[in-house]
């Protein structure tokens, strides 16, 4: 059976998750997945214990479901996609173990497969962890040819053995290397001082704007609540937790739930509260989740959010819509959703359609801060 047949829906049907209602045809795999699987089927058919990194929607673990696969992902949405696609293809009983990017790697591995992430720092952090495994485990990485640079190959050479590359097929390429037990640490987490405060922010490799305060958060901080009200706050899509951290600093009686779909983001947010406001840890929850799924009727007083407008390489507003819809369900009557977004995204119209109201709290040439109140 060819990889094209497997990934084209015969016998498997694979979907992105959560399903984008406007773009249901978005493909849940790419040519790099196809190339990687073709090579594995031809050259590593006997491998039984396979470690897979960055399998976005489960194309690899579904195709290799007859093996014992351990899938490592930083994304909670990817975890849901594995479950969804395995069950949809009657593979729910397959030996697929799912680990977060913060979990310890298994040591009994025959083969390692990597989908090369766009985030070069994440790749370096992952290769550093692989460098601590026993020597001579084959490592095969796959990605778009245009995104495999000299720096990519240098990372493999630094942490593993000297890599070789395949010819490009359908604009994708494979990188071949092996573990070497070099046991080299990466530079992550990175830390830097938060301007105009005494706080030091720690950032794991896959945290958005890990090397400095992003300009959106810098602007949003000017429009955070302050005072002594005992508000129940959610920092939705928290990243390194800077918005929730500053909210705690401004509001001594608030509680904050930090939510992100990235395990590295949630870990970074927790570390930043522990390191900077240890006396407030008891006022916090740290949750890796798909937006606010399961938080209906949570009774939140305030939800703070800087919604993303892309998923992997796809530009889409369905994640923002999911956040807004679920925020409304999670708020108490009279509760507030306060967001920041690029002005061209026209979130003002979206909030008016959903909440029946929207107020501009501030804007500049790039961003706008909006508030919507849940009314009966």
TrEMBL record:
Q: From the UniProt record, which GO molecular function terms apply?
A: 23S rRNA (guanine(1835)-N(2))-methyltransferase activity; nucleic acid binding
| Residues annotated as domain RlmG N-terminal | 7-179
Question: Where this protein primarily resides, as one coarse class?
Answer: cytoplasm
Cell compartment(s), UniProt: Cytoplasm
Entry annotated with the keyword Cell cycle: no
GO annotations of cellular component type: cytoplasm
- State its Enzyme Commission number(s): 2.1.1.174
Q: List keywords of the entry alphabetically.
A: Cytoplasm, Methyltransferase, rRNA processing, S-adenosyl-L-methionine, Transferase
| Domain of life assignment | Bacteria
Q: Which PROSITE patterns match?
A: N6_MTASE
- Catalytic activity annotated for this protein? guanosine(1835) in 23S rRNA + S-adenosyl-L-methionine = N(2)-methylguanosine(1835) in 23S rRNA + S-adenosyl-L-homocysteine + H(+)
Locate the transmembrane regions by residue number.
Answer: none
Q: SUPFAM superfamilies of this UniProt entry? A: S-adenosyl-L-methionine-dependent methyltransferases
Keyword S-adenosyl-L-methionine listed: yes
Q: Where is the signal peptide?
A: none
Q: Where is the Methyltransferase small domain?
A: 200-370
Q: Record's family?
A: Belongs to the methyltransferase superfamily. RlmG family.
**Briefly, what is this protein's role?**
Specifically methylates the guanine in position 1835 (m2G1835) of 23S rRNA.
Name the UniProt record assigns to this protein: Ribosomal RNA large subunit methyltransferase G
């Amino acid at each position: 059976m060819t990889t094209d047949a497997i990934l084209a829906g015969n016998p498997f049907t694979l979907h992105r998750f959560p399903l984008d209602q406007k773009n249901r045809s978005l493909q849940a795999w790419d040519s790099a997945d196809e190339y990687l699987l073709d090579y594995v089927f031809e050259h590593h058919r006997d491998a039984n214990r396979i470690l897979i990194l960055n399998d976005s929607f489960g194309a690899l673990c579904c195709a290799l479901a007859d093996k014992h696969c351990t899938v490592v992902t930083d994304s909670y949405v990817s975890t849901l996609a594995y479950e969804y696609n395995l069950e949809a293809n009657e593979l729910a009983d397959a030996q697929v173990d799912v680990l977060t990017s913060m979990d310890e790697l298994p040591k009994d591995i025959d083969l390692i497969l990597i989908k090369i992430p766009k985030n070069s720092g994440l790749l370096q952090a992952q290769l550093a962890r692989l460098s601590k495994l026993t020597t001579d485990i084959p490592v095969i990485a796959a990605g778009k040819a245009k995104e495999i640079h000299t720096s990519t190959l240098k990372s493999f050479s630094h942490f593993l053995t000297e890599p070789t590359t395949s010819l490009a097929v359908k604009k994708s390429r494979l990188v071949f290397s092996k573990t070497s037990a070099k046991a080299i640490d990466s530079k992550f987490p990175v830390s830097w001082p938060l301007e105009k405060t005494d706080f030091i922010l720690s950032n794991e490799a896959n945290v958005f704007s890990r090397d400095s305060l992003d300009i959106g958060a810098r602007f949003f901080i000017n429009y955070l609540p302050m005072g002594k009200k005992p508000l129940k706050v959610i920092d939705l899509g928290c990243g390194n937790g800077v918005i929730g951290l500053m909210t705690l600093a401004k509001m001594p009686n608030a509680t904050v739930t930090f939510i992100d779909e990235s395990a590295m983001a949630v870990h970074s947010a927790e570390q930043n509260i522990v390191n900077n406001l240890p006396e407030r840890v008891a006022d916090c929850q740290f949750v890796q989740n798909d937006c606010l799924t399961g938080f209906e009727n949570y009774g939140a007083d305030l939800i703070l959010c800087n919604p993303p407008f892309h998923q992997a390489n796809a530009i889409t507003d369905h994640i923002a819509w999911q956040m807004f819809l679920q925020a409304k369900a999670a708020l108490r009557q009279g509760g507030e959703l306060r967001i920041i977004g690029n002005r061209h995204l026209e979130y003002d119209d979206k909030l008016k359609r959903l909440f029946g109201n929207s107020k501009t709290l501030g804007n500049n040439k790039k961003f706008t801060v909006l508030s919507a109140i849940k009314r009966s």
